[in-house]
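dude i think i finally got it to work??
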Amino acid sequence: MTEFHADDYGLFPAQSRRILECCTGGALNGTSLMPNSPWLEDCLAMLPEQGLALTVHLNLMEGRALTPKEEIPHLTDTEGVFRVSFAALLFARLTGRYPVYFRELKKELSAQIRVLLPLFRQRGEALRLDGHAHWHMLPVVFDALMEVIREEELPVAYIRIPREPVALLLRHFFSILPFHPINIVKSLLLHALAGRNLRRHREALGGMERKLFLGVLFSGRFDYGKISRLLPALEAEADRRGWGLELLLHPGAVYEEEDIRALTNRSDHKFLTSPDRMLEAEALRRLGRKEASDA
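look at this
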């Protein structure tokens, strides 16, 4: 099955409605829930009873932590707002802070999962997990997450492994231009981190669902043309591996001034307010229309 997925649901009500419009009027059939959002409860009430596969969107960079700030001082500022950097977590072992981050991350990751665990139990579903900006793939974060799952015996069916199919993309290189050059660096870094995590946690991950993934290289420019050109090859490759397929798009733009002022992460601000999100929303709507006409 192909999952057309949108991250960041629940961040703000208006932004979440834009995501839902791509479900009711498009091909979107999966979304990730921001567990630390002040608007989470209101946004959960807007979710349809069926039609969307849900995932916990573990978040360590936007907004306030769920854990008291006194318990995780290396992850937040004095107001409890996330302030730890990607680089600090990436190089945690080199700086000697791995044990400190590991202990604090376990607390916050557990809190974020537990706030949404009742929803999954109510739906009779095992947990699915991914991460905001894919920070869950950072070694110290992934290690802490896997220990939380083991210690708390959490029913996890799927963890997103954002390892894009490099060989397949190279075969189609000239038909998938353009894309942001920085996304090549992001994709290759995540590819390397995924390899490390898969090796280190092979046994624990072995019983979970695997999906072929695409959505980093084209992030911000994953338009209808790219999707339609790549989809047959991606579905064939997923079938060959015996996996599902997850295509990540970002139709949930933040355009309301009040919501923009509420954002706490500078890099998130640029990404969440990008007009390119309208391009990806239109891609989902066109895919929905095509599915309807083919039915």
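The mean pLDDT is 94.
im so relieved honestly
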